[in-house]
Amino acid sequence: MYEYFSGKLTEKNPTYVIIDNQGIGYLINISLNTYDKIKDLDSAKLYVHFVVREDAQILYGFADEPERALFRALITVSGVGANTARLVLSSLTTEEAYTAISSGDVSTLQSVKGIGSKTAQRIVVDLKDKLGKQGFLPDKIGVFHNTMKDEALSGLVILGFNKSTASKVLDRVLKQSAFDNVESLIKEALKNL
């Protein structure tokens, strides 16, 4: 029904914002990741998902479309409601959640408060193939699902670098330019470590 709301942010906090749009204030529930992206802005455009229940009509807002797409995918999983999906997107970035789902990393999903092992497994089983078929996050796949990145990360860990630090540096390097081979990727990452 609603695609997005844009307007002046009259109230901001980590769980919701109020957007003034032509004199009407809309209370929109948000994730912590969305809050991080808009906390310093005076006005914003939030992509929304509208939920109608017997006892409430609730707007969930997202700073970008990939986050909303992942939210919508998560709520299709049995046992995952809108608030649980929002918790996932507050605890993990869109990229981290997508990576965990597509690689079957149940432990990362379990690290989210309120997600048990069965729910985490159900999320992976239900969404792993579905997200790939939908072409979810095509601009991020080159960075986050890159065998060259995995090989370079393994090489850097063997050289004694911290895995999470090396992974972040590789992500940054891959966003800046493309590489033909693992060696050149490792060399560029070493310059940034």
Give a short overview:
The protein has 193 residues and is α+β, with helices and mostly antiparallel strands.
Structure description:
- This protein folds into 3 domains: 4-62, Nucleic acid-binding proteins (OB fold (Dihydrolipoamide Acetyltransferase, E2P)); 65-138, DNA polymerase, domain 1, CATH 1.10.150.20; 146-192, Ubiquitin-associated (UBA) domain (Helicase, Ruva Protein, domain 3), CATH 1.10.8.
- 53% of the residues lie in helices and 20% in strands.
- It is built from 10 helices and 5 strands; from the N terminus they run βββαββααααααααα.
- The chain has a 5-stranded mixed barrel.
Strand content: 15-25%
Radius of gyration: 19 Å
Low-confidence stretches: 137-145
Instruction: Give the number of helices.
Output: 10
Side by side, the strands of the main sheet go 1-2-3-5-4
CATH class of the largest domain: Mainly Alpha
Termini gap: 47 Å
**CATH homologous superfamily label of the largest domain:** 5' to 3' exonuclease, C-terminal subdomain
Secondary structural class: alpha+beta
Average pLDDT for all residues:
86
Instruction: Provide the domain count.
Output: 3
What is the β-strand count?
Answer: 5
Judging from the principal axes of the Cα atoms, what is the shape? Answer: globular
**Largest sheet geometry:** 5 strands, mixed, barrel
CATH topology of the largest domain, by name, is DNA polymerase, domain 1
